[in-house]
C-alpha cells in the first residue's frame, strides 16, 4: 500500500476526467498516495477559467452515452473537479502540471485551478512515482 | 448486543466512490474504538466496504440490508 498510484491524464473530456477522479478518490480513501500528472488537453481542462465548463465526452460515448452521463449528473453525481477536491481533503493526493504542456498551451501557474499543486517535468514525475503503477488516461 | 453508535453517515443516493470517500472522512472525526454507522444505496458498496475495512484495518462490525438500503457499522482502529 506504500507505493503510490500514478495517473497520467492526457484526455480532457469529462468522462475520462471523471474516471480518473474516481480512481484517485478511491485510492485516497484507502490511504494510498496518488500522483496525478496533467498533460495536454487534461491540463487545459484544469484552467481556472475553464474547469467548470462542459468538456464534452470521448467520441465512443455517442448520443446514448451523453444521455446516460447527463442522467447521473442530474441525479446528483459529483463533478470530477469536486470529486478531486474531496480526494485531496483526504490527503496524499498531489496534482502536478506537465511543464511541456504548460508551454504548449501558453499557461502560467496563475492560470490553473487551485487543485493543481505545482508544475514539474517528466523526470520529477517518475521520481515521485517510485515503483508504483503508472496509468495513462 | 446493542451497539453504541458514535456517528451516522447518510450516504444514500450517492454513487461510487462517494460512500467510501465520505466514510474515510467521517472516520477521522471519531475516536479510536468508536463506531461509525453508514447507510448506502450503491450496490457496489457491499464489496467496497469489505475491501476498505480489510485494507485500512477499521473493523466491519455489522452489515445488513433492508429495503435496498445497506447498513454498515465500522469500528475505528
Structure description:
The complex is a heterodimer of chains A (137) and B (77). Helix content of chain A is 44%, strand content 16%. With 137 residues, chain A is of the alpha/beta class. Chain A has a five-stranded parallel beta sheet. Chain A is globular, with a radius of gyration of 15 Å. The relative contact order of chain A is 0.25. Chain B is of the alpha+beta class. Chain B has one domain: Translation Initiation Factor IF3 (2-Layer Sandwich). A four-stranded mixed beta sheet of chain B has the order 1-2-4-3, covered by helices on one side. The A-B interface holds A 1, 22, 25-26, 28-31, 72, 75-78, 83, 86-87, 89-90 and B 13-18, 20-25, 52, 55-56.
Q: Any descriptors?
A:
heterodimer; A: 137 residues; alpha/beta; 6 helices; 5 strands; B: 77 residues; alpha+beta; Translation Initiation Factor IF3; 4-stranded mixed β-sheet; 29% helix; globular
List the helices and strands and how they pair.
The complex is a heterodimer of chains A (about 140) and B (about 80).
Chain A: E1 5-9, H1 14-29, E2 34-38, H2 40-45, H3 62-74, H4 80-90, E3 93-98, H5 99-104, E4 118-120, H6 122-129, E5 134-136
Parallel strand pairs in A: 1-2, 1-5, 2-3, 3-4
Helix pairs in contact in A: 1-4
Chain B: E1 5-11, H1 18-27, E2 35-40, H2 45-56, E3 59-66, E4 69-75
Parallel strand pairs in B: 1-2
Antiparallel strand pairs in B: 2-4, 3-4
Sheet with the most strands: spatial strand order of chain A: 4-3-2-1-5
Sum up the overall morphology of chain B in one term. globular
Total beta strands of chain A: 5
Largest interface: A-B, 18 and 15 residues
Provide the helix percentage of chain A. 40-55%
Our count of domains of chain B comes out at 1
Amino acid at each position: 500500500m506504500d507505493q503510490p498510484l500514478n495517473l497520467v491524464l492526457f484526455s480532457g473530456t469529462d468522462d475520462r476526467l471523471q474516471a480518473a477522479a474516481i480512481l484517485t478518490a478511491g485510492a485516497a480513501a484507502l490511504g494510498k498516495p496518488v500522483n496525478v500528472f496533467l498533460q495536454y488537453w487534461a491540463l487545459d481542462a484544469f484552467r481556472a477559467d475553464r474547469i467548470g465548463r462542459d468538456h464534452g465526452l470521448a467520441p465512443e460515448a455517442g448520443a446514448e452515452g451523453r444521455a446516460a452521463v447527463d442522467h447521473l449528473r442530474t441525479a446528483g453525481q459529483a463533478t470530477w473537479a469536486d470529486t478531486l477536491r474531496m480526494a485531496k481533503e483526504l490527503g496524499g493526493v498531489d496534482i502536478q502540471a506537465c511543464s511541456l504542456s504548460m508551454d504548449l498551451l501558453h499557461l502560467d501557474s496563475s492560470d490553473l485551478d487551485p487543485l493543481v499543486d505545482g508544475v514539474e517535468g517528466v523526470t520529477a514525475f517518475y521520481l515521485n512515482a517510485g515503483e508504483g503503477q503508472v496509468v495513462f488516461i | 448486543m446493542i451497539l453504541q453508535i458514535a456517528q451516522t453517515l447518510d450516504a444514500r443516493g450517492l454513487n461510487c466512490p462517494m460512500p467510501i470517500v465520505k466514510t474515510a472522512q467521517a472516520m477521522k472525526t471519531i475516536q479510536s474504538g468508536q463506531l461509525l454507522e453508514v447507510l448506502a444505496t450503491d450496490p457496489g458498496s457491499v464489496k467496497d466496504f469489505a475491501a476498505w475495512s480489510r485494507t485500512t484495518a477499521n473493523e466491519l462490525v455489522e452489515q445488513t440490508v433492508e429495503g435496498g438500503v445497506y447498513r454498515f457499522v465500522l469500528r475505528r482502529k
